[in-house]
């Protein structure tokens, strides 16, 4: 699989079927929940296979509701007082860290065990990263934001270690892929050192995994590129399509959303161990299904800027839960078709 | 002993019942009129609460404002809503106003009216009960918007100030609370005089107080509300009757102690307005209520 060019992957979430989303909170943790989440996972894996994805992820995160809450609910020391606005009438449960944090059980084990039992496909486990967990929490206990981020890093390290143990027992010859989700990574420009230390802290001492980082909707990815040499990840799965025009065309005037990859390439070329880019080629915030040709143009622009096509994987900008399952599938299909065409061209 | 007045301003977190109702309204499951009734009832409840806690000054809780710029700017000709944009370094977003012009008021801001992508008007559901009209500071409006090229900044500021004055009068307020959350450069403070009488103007400024601009201008207001850790309250006092201090933290769920708050009010002040650092909508409702209780008990 790793020898393929332009490996196609999902970023994480996919829209839940109504039979699961309607009941999710009412039945969470019950045997009915595991039945329905399992059923939805299998159906979503089928969608991904039909769409031609190389990496099936965790089948669209059917066992999870929201990325922050899912992990925080498994941690002692985090207290929920209520909902806090994200935008408009969209709210999330923002936890307060009121004492030393400690994982009381695994947030992702049930999902992983289900996948190992029911899927043979390549998988990548998304886990909300320590910096984002810190940034989206109230800190009523730790001395400062650095200390809280590092405390979350310990929790996540423990989680990954447990998942790896179970993964290895079932698939001893495979590398476990872990995607650290850090949407908040570049929101405080003067805290990139905290991002680096906490992400690295989450992975410290864990061998035999392929860690990546996912960041989206950054005001400026150059902040992230600047710290790539220090980040102990193999690749960066990023959103680009959202910032790129929908009109077809090639070159820097047309593919404006991808131009900062030139800066990434200038940093990456100095590294002994090059990082790959998971290239966001389809926008998860619009129903417009990007035509195959437009996706090909986006990938080819990235090839021009990065130079080496083997350093490019291809994915949606972010989780596709924001779109209907039908639109999500059509977007993924076009993505796979574009990659198929380019593999012929570049092989 | 400093005489302390307390102030609660800006968007206040809504209870879950109203949040859920707004979701149902967005999906078209309930009529706008029904939503408006719920908004009014929730607003009345919050005003009752502020009064019973002993808060001296308060704005409308703005339960029908999706962000602190949107409904007001949406009511003006020449302003469109742009993309979701992060509020400073928080995890909360607002719709970037795109200013193509700043014209007249399109809707009666005091009456029922349906806006796009925002719950219905009136702007102030508690007009007649709350004692300050909330406005985003004019400098903040321009700094947090995308202003089309070719528009003259001072002209826009003056038009905005004139419009604020019209809205204030129409809604029946004498006093205004001007929220300069992210003003950039306040280089023409005299425009504040167009909005309300100086003795009725309560000016919140986040960050450094622009002392040079005020020194050059003739403007004096009732209160300038600043962070004491970033500003000299003695300097601020020269430009207002009662300095205000942003003390209670709206970005932590930890409830400060009463003594901790009182210690941060300088003894040298004859009187002071004590308030929160940012509007309360960054907190869960239950915590905001406790912080209001703390303020009311000072």
CATH topology of chain A: TIM Barrel
Strand order of the largest sheet of chain B: 2-1-13-12-11-10-9-7
Structure classification of chain B: alpha/beta
CATH architecture of chain B: Alpha-Beta Barrel
Kindly report the greatest chain-chain contact and the residue count on each side: A-B, 22 and 27 residues
Estimated helix fraction of chain A: 40-55%
Total strands of chain A: the figure is 9
Question: What would you say this structure looks like, in words?
Answer:
The complex is a heterodimer of chains A (347) and B (298). Chain A has 347 residues and is of the alpha/beta class. Chain A has one domain (18-346): TIM Barrel. Chain A contains twelve helices and nine strands. A six-stranded parallel beta sheet of chain A has the order 3-5-6-7-8-9. Chain A is globular, with a radius of gyration of 19 Å. Chain B has 298 residues and is of the alpha/beta class. Chain B has a single domain, classed as TIM Barrel (Alpha-Beta Barrel). Chain B contains nine helices and 13 strands. In chain B, the strands form three sheets. Chain B has an eight-stranded parallel beta sheet with strand order 2-1-13-12-11-10-9-7. Chain B has a three-stranded mixed beta sheet with strand order 3-4-8. Chain B has a two-stranded antiparallel ribbon with strand order 5-6. In chain B, strand 5 (113-115) and strand 6 (118-121) form a beta hairpin. Chain B is globular, with a radius of gyration of 18 Å. The chains are: A alpha/beta (347), B alpha/beta (298). The A-B interface holds A 81-89, 91, 94, 96, 98, 135-136, 138-140, 184, 187-188, 219 and B 13, 16, 19, 22-23, 26, 66-67, 84, 86, 89, 91-94, 117, 251-254, 281-287.
């Amino acid at each position: 699989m790793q020898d393929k060019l332009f490996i196609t992957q999902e970023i994480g979430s996919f829209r839940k079927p109504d039979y699961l989303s309607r009941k999710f909170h009412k039945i969470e943790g019950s045997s009915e929940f595991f039945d329905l989440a399992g059923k939805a996972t299998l159906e979503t894996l089928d969608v991904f296979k039909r769409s031609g994805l190389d990496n099936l992820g965790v089948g669209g995160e059917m066992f999870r509701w929201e990325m922050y809450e899912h992990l925080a609910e498994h941690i002692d020391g985090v207290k929920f007082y209520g909902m806090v606005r994200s935008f408009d009438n969209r709210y999330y449960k923002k936890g307060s860290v009121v004492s030393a944090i400690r994982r009381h059980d695994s947030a992702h084990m049930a999902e992983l065990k289900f996948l190992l039992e029911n899927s043979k496909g390549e998988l990548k486990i998304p886990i909300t990263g320590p910096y984002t967990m810190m940034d989206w929490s109230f800190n009523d206990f730790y001395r400062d934001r650095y200390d809280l981020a590092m405390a979350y890093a310990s929790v996540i390290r423990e989680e990954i270690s447990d998942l790896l143990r179970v993964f290895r027992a079932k698939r001893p010859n495979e590398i476990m892929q872990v995607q650290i989700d850090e949407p908040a990574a570049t929101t405080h420009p003067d805290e990139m050192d905290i991002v680096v230390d906490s992400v690295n802290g989450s992975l410290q001492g864990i061998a035999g995994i392929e860690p990546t980082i996912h960041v989206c909707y950054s005001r400026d990815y150059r902040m992230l590129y600047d710290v790539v040499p220090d980040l102990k990840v193999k690749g960066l799965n990023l959103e680009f399509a959202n910032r790129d025009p929908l009109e077809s065309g090639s070159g820097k005037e047309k593919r404006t959303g991808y131009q900062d990859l030139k800066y990434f390439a200038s940093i990456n070329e100095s590294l002994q161990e090059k990082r790959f880019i998971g290239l966001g080629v389809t926008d998860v915030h619009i129903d417009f299904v990007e035509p195959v040709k437009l996706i090909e143009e986006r990938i080819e622009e990235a090839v021009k800027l990065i130079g080496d096509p083997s350093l490019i994987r291809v994915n949606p900008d972010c989780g596709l839960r924001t779109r209907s399952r039908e639109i999500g599938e059509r977007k993924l299909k076009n993505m796979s078709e574009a990659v198929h065409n380019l593999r012929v061209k570049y092989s | 002993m400093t005489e302390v007045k307390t102030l609660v301003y800006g968007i206040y977190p809504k209870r879950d019942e109203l949040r859920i109702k707004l979701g149902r309204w967005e999906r078209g499951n309930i009529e706008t009129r029904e939503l408006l009734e719920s908004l009014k009832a929730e607003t009345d409840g919050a005003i009752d609460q502020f009064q019973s806690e002993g808060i001296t000054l308060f704005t409308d809780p703005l339960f029908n404002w999706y962000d602190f710029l949107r409904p007001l700017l949406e009511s003006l000709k020449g302003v469109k809503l742009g993309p979701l944009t992060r509020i400073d370094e928080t995890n909360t977003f607002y719709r970037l106003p795109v200013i193509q012009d700043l014209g007249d008021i399109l809707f009666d801001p005091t009456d029922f009216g349906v806006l796009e992508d925002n719950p219905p008007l009136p702007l102030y559901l508690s007009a007649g009960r709350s004692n300050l009209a909330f406005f985003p500071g004019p400098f903040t409006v321009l700094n947090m918007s995308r202003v089309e090229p070719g528009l003259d900044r001072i002209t826009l500021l003056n038009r905005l100030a004139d419009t604020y004055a019209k809205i204030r009068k129409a809604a029946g307020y004498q006093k205004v609370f001007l929220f300069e959350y992210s003003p950039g450069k306040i280089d023409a403070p005299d425009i504040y005089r167009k909005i309300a009488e100086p003795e009725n103007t309560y000016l919140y400024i986040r960050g450094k107080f622009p002392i040079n601009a005020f020194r050059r201008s003739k403007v004096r207001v009732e209160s300038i509300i600043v962070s004491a850790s970033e500003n000299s309250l003695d300097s601020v006092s020269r430009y207002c009757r009662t300095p205000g201090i942003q003390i209670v933290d709206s970005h932590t769920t930890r409830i400060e102690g009463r003594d901790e708050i009182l210690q941060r009010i300088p003894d040298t002040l004859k009187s002071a307005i004590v308030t929160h650092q940012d509007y309360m909508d960054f907190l869960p409702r239950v915590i905001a209520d406790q912080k209001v209780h703390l303020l009311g008990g000072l």
